[in-house]
Amino acid sequence: MTTISRSTAWKRPGTKTGWWAVGLGVVFVLMFIINSIEFMAMTTNSWWQQNLLPFYGILMLLCGLSAGIMGLFAVIRKHERSWLVWLTILPGAFVLFLVLGEFLGPAH
Fold first, then answer.
1. What is the CB-side half-sphere exposure of residue 13 using CA atoms within 13 A?
2. Looking at residue 52, what DSSP letter applies?
3. pTM for the full model?
4. pLDDT tens digit string along 66-94?
5. Cα angle at 21 between 104 and 88, to 5 degrees?
6. E strand or H helix that includes residue 103
7. How crowded is residue 6: how many other Cβ atoms within 10 Å of its Cβ?
8. CA nearest 61: which of 103, 31, 21?
9. What is the spatial distance between Cα 24 and Cα 84, in angstroms, rounded to a whole number?
């Protein structure tokens, strides 16, 4: 009788780098949802919105970019094949396109 083994793509990450990439990707998605739902809907202009929200946005983008870089490193160098790690490349690409669009776009 032959046994059917599951593909390595459907397993959980097997390396620490893969787990870090997944964790940072989850943090990015949660911060992005909070930013979209809560902070963008605010109409009042208070001191903390001007002083703290830029740091929140930078931290959010850094989490997404580092998740993508670590996910790419885990896939290429550590031979990670988990679908969760492959999924972390998407936030990295999203942040990279946002930053490149900001620098390469037309000046207003």
1. 20
2. T
3. 0.84
4. 999 999 999 999 999 999 999 999 999 99
5. 55
6. helix 89-104
7. 7
8. 31
9. 11
